[in-house]
Amino acid sequence: MSTRVPDSGGQYEALDFTVRSGESADGAVVVVVSGDIDYTHFRELEAAIEHRLAEQDGPTRLVVDLAAVPYCDSCGMRVLLGASQRVTGAGGTFGLRGLHGQPQRALRLTGLDRVLREAGPTGELDARSHG
Amino acid sequence: MDSTMPAGAPLPTPPSGMRSLSARVLEGLSEAVVVTGTASPGGTRQIVHAVNPAGERLLPGLVAGRPVEHAGHDEFTAAVVGGAASFEAVVHGRSLAARAQVLDDPRTGDVLTCWYLRDVTEERLGSRSLHRAQARAQFLAEAGRALHGVLHLDRTLRTAVTLAAGVLAPTVLVLLSDGSDTVRWVRAQDGTRAVSGKLPRTELRAAPRLAEALSDDVPVDPWVTLELTDLPVWGGATPDGPITVVPVPGTIVRGVLVLVDDASDAPDGADDDRWPLAQEYAVRVGTALSAAALYREQAHLGEVLQGSLEPPPLPQGVDGLVLGSAYRPARESLRVGGDFYEVLPVTTAGQTPFLLGDVCGKGIEAAVLSGRVRQSLHALRLVERDPAVLLALLNEALLDAADLDAAGAPSVPRFATMVLGDALPAPDGSVRLRLATGGHPPPYVLRADGTVEEVPVSGTLVGALRDADFGGTEVVLGPGDTCLLYSDGVTEARGGPRGRDFFGEERLESALAGCAGAPAPVICERVLQLLTEWLAGQDHDDVALLALQAPAGPARGGEVSAPRLGLVRDAGSAGGGGRTEAA
After folding, report:
1. Is B417 in CB contact (< 8 Å) with chain A?
2. Would you say residue B378 has pLDDT above 60?
């Protein structure tokens, strides 16, 4: 993930939208997104998270990596919020990784940064992200 | 004596052992063989020297020793006499193909020609039917390509009859019902333009079988052809040839494909092929017409939704307050977006309530949610005036409504972001704004001297979290100061020299700074114009702008009408809700 987005009004490289997911060594479900999460793509992310969560038994630690996401619109925030509510509602934890640029500003602006928190750098989740 | 060589014939005389051996070999061959040559060395008359039983079957009547013309096979005779290398003929309904092999008899110096004949009837038939099958497949493939993606009902109909005219029949008519009060018809003759029209359904009273074929999934009654000739769809040229009616199946529309042959020119033997071809064609036409009809319904739904989301006009002539707005919905009609704004009439307390927001999602969902937001606020305003408290109440109302919708199931969050407030003009020409935001980009204030300030107010988005808080603040606009509310479609519009860069807050701020002193509608129009240039024709999300301004002059006036910048049409006009197309 070499793509980084300069701040406000910044320029970026156009990326294809991809979602990869897997489990980290410490058992967290990690979903790595690349590209804009917008109206065109949010359903792919939604489906990928849905698919991963369906495989899990019991409380899940879900980490969504947004390091290669230059833009996230309200549809994307809705997917993240929905995933967070679902995971934490079942006793698990939700965390974001690599948050930066417009998605970071958007989460701050909407107040969603209060529920959609940063996961620890190793995938260890911050205890505060519970519920 | 060999049976193929009757006695009495003037035969050349090869050694008898040799002759009988070759005769026996010939007899045993399944391939048809005929040997021809001159009757005598150096002569000109061609006779049959030998013919084996297989050869007799293909060219009956040939007898060894007789002249070639004796049996009356003209193509064969012509080929022998003309020294052809091959010939083809149809004899008694069988197709023959023959090739010649010249044989020199080294003993006599005679030149004999051996004809190898094949019955190619089945091959020819096979390749003809293969050819027809290929032509059918090609016709259907071309029709599929031509019909696919037209997505316009009348154009699809025209294409359907034009393609079929001259292929399925000289004249083709399609009648189509979409369940409305009229039946569309399109008629085409090979090589002429399609003619179309509409029939009121009442015209079908005298044509009950046709009416049935156009409304129910029943086999077409053969007597429908009599009804068809009486319909006013033939342009004076009532068909006098045989009529074939094929149902056109569809999910939203239903029709019939009518094939009219010329009276003088009844369909040939290929007619057996025509019925399945016409049926298959009708299925494709039905699919294309259904898609077009569905698209039309969706587009209509989109327009209705778009209309319901369209911001209402700004109130006219509010004392002590200048209003301006611009709204540019996302281009695709079926992706109705979620930006909305409104300014309500002045309350009895002299306040003008306003609102600008953005609901997540698009289409029906967005329309329903923005309707719910606006209706809820109208009701809540009856009991609460403070903007921040209003947002908190709205948040609860939306969450409760979402819980009801979900009925216990885990619900997908639906939320909105917005800035709302009210404006109260003061006697000194200033305007006092009360503002609150829920997760929305904070408004800007453009001072009369060109300074641009971001209003320091924040709050969580509305309708997503029970544990939300909404900031409120007050802003005083001096004469000529403007407060601009905008949707993130402005700052997140992608364009610029590289085509992928955000318009961003900084460009918006400098655009605003360049508008100092301009009336509110002009400011909105100018920002939209710069944004249009930035987009350079690219797709964009909804864009909404709302400007509230304290009048610049000492005189307190009403709304200032928007001077035209000439570059962007009908945007942010005083009427509000102006639609702007890409320049």
Report:
1. yes
2. yes
Does the CB of A2 have a partner CB in chain B at under 8 Å?
A: no
**Which residues face B419 on adjacent strands?**
B356, B437
**Per-residue confidence (pLDDT) for residue B298, from 0 to 100:** 83
- Structure ipTM over 0.85, yes or no: no
The per-residue pLDDT for B542 is 84
Distance CA B256, CA A17 (A): 46
Closest Cβ opposite residue B464 in set A8, A13, A81: A81
Look at residue B42 in the predicted model and tell me its pLDDT. Answer: 74
CB-nearest partner of A75 from B361, B440, B441: B361
Tell me how close the Cα of A7 comes to any Cα of chain B, in angstroms. Answer: 10
pLDDT score for B371: 85
CATH of segment(s) A18-124: 3.30.750.24
- Percent of chain A past pLDDT 90, that is, above it, reads 53
Which of B413, B502, B504 faces A81 most closely, judged by CB atoms?
B413
Tell me, yes or no, if B492 comes closer than 8 A to chain A by beta carbon: yes
Please tell me what DSSP assigns to residue B218. S
Query: CATH classification of B16-119, choosing from 3.40.50.920, 3.30.450.20, 2.40.160.60, 3.55.50.30?
Result: 3.30.450.20
Report DSSP letters for B491-549, one per residue. HT-EESTTS-EE-HHHHHHHHHHTTTT--HHHHHHHHHHHHHHHHTT-----EEEEEEE
Domain range annotation of chain A? 18-124
* Contact yes or no for A77 and B505 at CB 8 A: no
Of A10, A78, A102, the CB nearest to B413: A78
Does the pLDDT value for residue B465 go beyond 80? Answer: yes
**Alpha-carbon separation of residue B234 from B185, B238, B262, B321 (angstroms):** 10, 6, 14, 65
CATH 1.20.120.80 for domain B310-549, yes or no, is no
A5 has a pLDDT exceeding 60? no
Query: pTM for the complete prediction?
Result: 0.58
Answer whether B541 sits within 8 Å of A73, measured CB to CB: yes
Kindly report the nearest CA distance between residue A59 and chain B, in angstroms. 16
Domain at B125-301, CATH from 3.30.450.40, 3.40.1210.10, 1.10.760.10, 3.20.20.80: 3.30.450.40
Interchain CB distance below 8 Å, B460 and A110? yes
Do B125-301 and B16-119 fall under one CATH topology?
A: yes
Residue of B nearest to A84 (CA): B413
